[in-house]
Zinc-binding dehydrogenase (Ruegeria sediminis), 684 residues
Amino acid sequence: MTDLPGTMFAVVQTHDGFSGTATGPGIDNASEWLAPAELPLPEPGPGQVLIRLRMASVNPSDLHFIKGEYGQPRVKGAPAGFEGCGDVVAIGSGAEALKGQRVAFVASGSGAWAEYVVTQAQMCIPLRPDISDENGAAQIVNPMTAMAMVDIARSEGDAFVVSAATSQLGKLMCSLGRDLGLKPIALVRRAETVDALRELGADEVLVTNDPDLPEKFAAISKTLKPRVFLDAVSDQLSEQIFAAMPNKARWVSYGKLSAEQPRLTQMGQLIFMGKRIEGFWLTQWMMSTPPADQIRVVAEVQARFADGRWKTDVSTHLPLRDVVSGLAEALKKTDGKVMITP
Amino acid sequence: MTDLPGTMFAVVQTHDGFSGTATGPGIDNASEWLAPAELPLPEPGPGQVLIRLRMASVNPSDLHFIKGEYGQPRVKGAPAGFEGCGDVVAIGSGAEALKGQRVAFVASGSGAWAEYVVTQAQMCIPLRPDISDENGAAQIVNPMTAMAMVDIARSEGDAFVVSAATSQLGKLMCSLGRDLGLKPIALVRRAETVDALRELGADEVLVTNDPDLPEKFAAISKTLKPRVFLDAVSDQLSEQIFAAMPNKARWVSYGKLSAEQPRLTQMGQLIFMGKRIEGFWLTQWMMSTPPADQIRVVAEVQARFADGRWKTDVSTHLPLRDVVSGLAEALKKTDGKVMITP
């Protein structure tokens, strides 16, 4: 395609591999890990597509990743960013169906924080025209994770616990839970978010710095008997919550927002109460879930965004060229996602 | 039956419920928790039997229990002790088949550290005549646990890790593992036990105070890829072992010999490596395993004791009347089980 440039602007990683640290997703200065770069335009191989970026979302997993604290190694000089949406402007063999389409994507070939991105065709979801770029750019990682995790919760009963409930993912899980007739119990950091969470679908909302939290949670746990704890924080308070849950409770960690290493104070509960501690990772879920089930989940996710049941709150639109200097500041706003634009 | 006395000697608990402490199974002075008592002879109800004790074994779970640190509450004034063997001298309705038989038992109605014990008929296993009282008195708790847990290990691959491997249960699991063609990796506290463990069936033996343990275990883990860790200790070293195990490893805690509360230093492994932490409790296993499978396991256990493949090492025979004064001292010998005799 002759209208494509030979090079592109990208925000690239300045480190290889893992850092060995575990400091959580907070960043003070993105230039510790990221740098601007002008790179040759990547070329789609067989089964791949080249996407011109419309918008990339910033997820906590992106921050873990650039800091070298994620489950996959960094590649120095490669663009950062896992998720976005854009237009397919070139295709490799076997990806003809996506030609010219606007798609949501997870970046598998090169990072999303770049003017152009190469990824596998099966990591793309064509977007309905009634879905905005903002919703399209946050279509996969959070919504699919929410769907899959609430499904786990539902398999064990009707009540479940969600930490960091004001995150985009937390809000999705609360509203999805209510829609499915379940009872989400939300943990939040700030008292001023309680009403909004209830409005959104949480059956109960607890503030993590409330000194009475343990007693309050114990009472709720006794009544509602939540069996699944969908936890993005994974700190000592998480362990306390888990310890107060009933027989056969499952602590499902899907994130590590806290750098604290939780102590297991009630090991005997694993033995005598049949409790267990495990993790959730969307990539693993996608690898182990039949395509038909995934397609069903994708269609359901998209329908929810299209009819307005779900939407992505955006705090800031941050131009690609300002990411290195401005990302840390942009992330201080906690009322929505940072969206990167070309 | 007219030859039965009206009262019996028993070692009874002096506390109710749970202690709230978590100090492990060590005891300095049994009189903190136990006292001698003369009690009315218990009477077997429907489905129960009255057993004249031949021998009761002392398991770590007994010590956790009397200290109020086990998963079940104590009853003040009731005899302590979970397991033993003896002769059925009276029966309730429905238990006729056991009349006059020598049986191994788990005490469900009253404790085993008494001249007479009442328990459910289904908690009794008639003993073959070629099995000694010593083997009979330690027939259920450890051997059944070993069988059930090695079965879990086998379901995940051929190598598995066993902590506290010089315990009776640890030794059973190592020998059973070898018999089944598996590769037990044993953790022991004392270097002088290494050869004996290898002899018994361990494929690899590591000493827990060896400063090179982490590197040695990492190398073994890389080669043998153990997926299951059968752990009686549940301390920080256990967590380190678990962290060095491969993808999809399961940390199965069945005891808490250490009072240390392990920190989870690698929470991300639960997420990205599909690892999980869980418990094992024989009672739960017996409740959730079909009777036919349990009978098969019982027969296999008994065959192993009868033909000498398994045996119970005994360190001390301790008369019932000396338990309160002498138990702490008797437990200092680590070369076998303490057996209580009437």
